[in-house]
Design a protein that fits this description.
- With 320 residues, the chain is mostly helical.
- The chain has a domain at 105-270: MetI-like fold (Orthogonal Bundle), CATH 1.10.3720.10.
- Helices cover 68% and strands 2% of the residues.
- It is built from 14 helices and 2 strands, in the order H-E-E-H-H-H-H-H-H-H-H-H-H-H-H-H.
- A two-stranded antiparallel ribbon has the order 1-2.
- It is globular, with a radius of gyration of 31 Å.
Length: 320
Amino acid sequence: MSAPTLTKDPAVKDRRPRRPRAGAPHLTDGGFGKSLRRNLTAHGFLIGAVICFAFFSWYPIVREFLLAFQKTEDGDVSWVGWDNFVTVWNDPAFGQAWRNTLWFTVLALLLGFVVPFVTALVINEFRHGQGYLRLLVYLPVMLPPTASVLLFKYLYDPGYGMFNEVLGVFGVPAQQWLQDPDTAMLSVVVASTWMNMGGATLIYLAALQGVPGELYEAAELDGAGLFRKVWHVTVPQTRLILLLMLLMQIIATMQVFIEPFLLTGGAGPEGSTTTVVYLIYQYAFNFNNYGAAAALGLLLLVLLAGFSAAYTRFNRDEQD
């Protein structure tokens, strides 16, 4: 006899639990609520960051753009078109400020770009004590900028400064470091390099430690000396970091203000240390001409933005 077959009664519902479809929210175990709360939290943090960035970055940029075409007198705001730009352009200090800023940028790149890289190369050669050397190099960055600048102002003092004391040991007459137009800008660059080289040195050192040692061994087998190994191995392997740091340092040096302001009073002897940012400071807080200050700041913004865009385009074309 064959076993009886069981037929499914259509009136009886299937009581077996059904598996949820892929992507369907788990309403029974609270999965939908957890997902909603997680997304709300993430968007909350994102919205907070966007609001802070908009308030402290975008709003000042928009406000500066508007001020560049406005004039405020006795609380009354009026649109003046390009008058503020004409005022800035006709200022005798305008050209001098740009020349001094470009000169500071060139000197700062010669020292502030090369010295940290060479320092990183030297530290990278040490097998032991790299942690102490990194700390020693980074210490000036941890000091308040004002304290560092005042320290160099003491060292530059023509009467009892340490720099002149060292020169006196070798029979060299004392120098008027900050009072001489020929040496004032160079003195400012030296102080700025000492203050800011720590961060760049650590970045270069991290890039150097990522270079494979086999490349140096192959270069040594080919008879390459120290300079050739640096030029043909180190520089190509750290090229992206070098280019990025070059861009960042140009942007930073074009906005120099603290060092010349505290060391030479801003303008310096015969205006030798007057920079664009210091001229903006003069317009805003000495002449109460916020429109001219905004116009000059907008010119600096456009110049740096154009340089950054050109650099990015050039770097992208080379990578392609």
